[in-house]
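Summary of Year 1 activities. Much of the first year was spent building the evaluation harness for sequence design. The harness presents a backbone, in tokenized form, and records the residue chosen at every position. We chose the following record to illustrate the format because it has been used consistently in internal testing since the harness was completed.
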């Protein structure tokens, strides 16, 4: 299988790689982060989706846009890392919700959501 061409990477994003810690009660907190700017990738936004969350008898509707991003290199993205993409009109702020690394072959596919 041939690697995808770098010509498909028509967008650039800023990645914020977070470092997470855990306190004595088991709560996760951000202990720092590093930023990578102008990272080449392909950004494919999906259609807006709605999700109903119930908590303590109350329901809240959350609307978000799912994204799929394709990278040729592994930048070490993990769940809850952040991606910022400027589309020429506005900046979209996304949170990583999943990724697929195909055993070192082919691109890295990242799933991310932007709350709107």
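For this record, the design step produced the sequence shown next.
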């Amino acid at each position: 299988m041939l690697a995808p061409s770098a010509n498909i990477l028509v967008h650039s994003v800023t990645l914020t790689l977070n470092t997470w810690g855990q306190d004595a009660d088991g709560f996760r907190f951000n202990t720092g982060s590093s930023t990578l700017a102008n990272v080449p990738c392909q950004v494919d936004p999906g259609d807006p989706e709605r999700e109903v969350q119930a908590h303590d008898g109350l329901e809240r509707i959350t609307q978000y846009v799912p994204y799929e991003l394709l990278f040729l290199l592994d930048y070490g993205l993990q769940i809850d890392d952040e991606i910022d993409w400027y589309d020429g009109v506005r900046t979209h702020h996304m949170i990583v919700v999943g990724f697929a690394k195909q055993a070192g072959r082919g691109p890295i596919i990242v799933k991310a959501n932007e709350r709107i």
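Strands lie at 11-22, 28-45, 49-55, 58-71, 82-86, 91-101, 108-115. Quantitative recovery figures across the full test set are reported in Table 2.
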